[in-house]
Amino acid sequence: MSLLFVHEAEGREYLLAPGDTLETDLGILEVPEDVDPGDTVQTHLGTTFTVRRLRGPDLFHHLERTGAPMMPRDIGLVIGHTGIGSDDRVLDAGTGTGVLAAALGRIGATVVTFERDPEFAETARENMRLAGVDDAVEVRTGDLTDHFPELSGFDVLTLDTEDAPEVVAHAPNLLVRGGFVAVYSPFVEDTRETVERAREIGLADVRTLETIQREMDFDDRGSRPSTAGVGHTGYLTFARLP
To answer: How high is the pLDDT of residue 229?
Structure first.
């Protein structure tokens, strides 16, 4: 698994693996093979970096991106509302960067995720290796809808795709009894279609959340919500197979 190398004074962080070489204006850093979290290492110019273990939120900032990754707050809602945990089997589609799949692998789930774009899929596989979950997350290149007959017995179905309503219609064949569906969409029109399809096939506890958060600013003048950043990210729809 890769580790974070942090230079506190400069506010820099680098995701590196044992044996890697980093070349920056702070010097050349040769990462030892036996490096551990908590160690300090120096560049050839004497610049010190502190080694940290990679944590879940770090995945969002440091994995290579092929698009807009799911935000940590949305990942938290997916985990919280479906109860994904150790030994669960998750079927995912719309891998993208793979932040969600990696996060689920890190909490002990086994994930099969589909990505249509071959280049995106290859990047996601590398990201799984960097996150240390390549043994838990299988990234498949292709369209999930082409593989329905061979897929069943999953505890959770997670989707970030335009054809989510079509996939949701097959949820009874993909999930175990009591299994959950979690669908992310940036658009309310697609979300409504997903909800209607879930109700049509008899899924229970169908509900949609708009994900909105505001950071707080605290300074000498007072305290108020931040005027910067993105408050709204999208819509999350949850349902359960009775």
So the answer is: 67
Q: What ranges in 13-150 are assigned the alpha helix state H? A: 56-62, 72-82, 99-106, 118-131
Domain 3-53 has CATH 3.40.50.720: no
Helix axis angle, 99-106 relative to 118-131, nearest 10°?
30
CATH topology of domain 58-240: Rossmann fold (3.40.50)
| CA atoms of 239 and 183, how far apart (whole Å) | 9
The residues facing 207 across adjacent strands are 238
Of 104, 97, 50, 30, nearest to 69 (Cα)? 97
pTM summary value = 0.87
Cα pseudo-dihedral 208, 209, 211, 213, rounded to 10: 170
Domain coordinates of the chain in residue numbers? Answer: 3-53, 58-240
For the chain, how far is it from start to end, CA to CA, in angstroms?
Answer: 39
d(CA 192, CA 196): 6
Structure tokens at 134: 């390549």
Phi, psi of 193 (to 5 degrees): -65, -40
* Residue 71 DSSP label: P
Which residue ranges in the chain fall short of pLDDT 70?
229-230
